[in-house]
Hints:
Layout (H helix, E strand, L loop, with lengths): L1 E4 L5 H12 L3 E3 L12 E2 L1 E3 L4 H15 L2 H7 L1 E4 L3 E6 L3 E5 L4 E3 L6 E3 L2 E6 L6 E3 L2 E3 L2 E3 L6 E5 L4 E3 L2 E15 L4 H20 L4 H17 L3
Helix pairs in contact: 4-5
The structure holds nickel (II) ion (NI).
The site of nickel (II) ion (NI) has 3 residues, from loops.
Amino acid sequence: MMLSIPDVLSAEQLQQCRTALESGNWQDGRLTAGHQAVNVKANQQLAQDDPLTQQLGDFILARLAQHPRFMAAALPLKVVPPRFNRYTGGGTYGDHIDNAVFSVPGTPHRIRADLSATLFLSEPYEYEGGELVVQDTRIKLSAGHLILYSSGSLHRVEPVTRGARLASFFWVQSLVRQDDQRSVLLELDDSIQALRQQVPDSPELVRLTGIYHNLLRQWSQT
Length: 222
Ligand code: NI
């Protein structure tokens, strides 16, 4: 599954986040890299326990909870609190696959990463390079837009050779673990939404909606 989710943040909300991040306490991203990733990671991050990380992360989570497309596509059960990174001056993150399980700091919770998400916070014209490359797909979205992709995918961030690339990133444990099943549900949901516009009184809409919920009942794990 790979899907872009537009307009997670409005222009005004984006500006608020950007202003707050400019005075952020950026640290070497290698502090949080695992044994393998430490050799390929060269960026900056806000500490997970930085109050700014928590404040902006909560804000983004609240936005996502109100975003119908994100909710329909990800079917989130648990979300790792969003983190923030900054690539500049040749900063890069070479090919890697994300960890399978994340601990939530300060809690006993562990979250399986089914989906990885990057929320772009810089406009594409503000930096050169910096594409997120997932398998063979190159991604560079407008600020405020989010890309969702399978956490099992090999991916990297190309070197940023001019300007700065700010982003938020996090992981989702989905109600539906299997990518193909989640894609079927999204396709069905999209079709139901379209039919609701075209034939709102059709009794088949009720049946299709029932099928959606019965598939979700079969495939979801909580
Ligand atoms: Ni990654």
